[in-house]
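Table S2 (continued). Query chain:
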Amino acid sequence: MSDFKTPLNGQSMQDGFEKVKLTEKQRLEELDKKLKEIVNRLKIIEQKNQDRD
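Corresponding output:
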């Protein structure tokens, strides 16, 4: 099955693409949050390592 087919409920393909864009944006925002969390954890770990020296 292809995502490019027009949905059966009568909405246009453009509506489908708009929804895909929105979910893509949301996914990128989630990834961005996770990336910032990881960076913060790395900074904390780095700080602890410097404190040991």
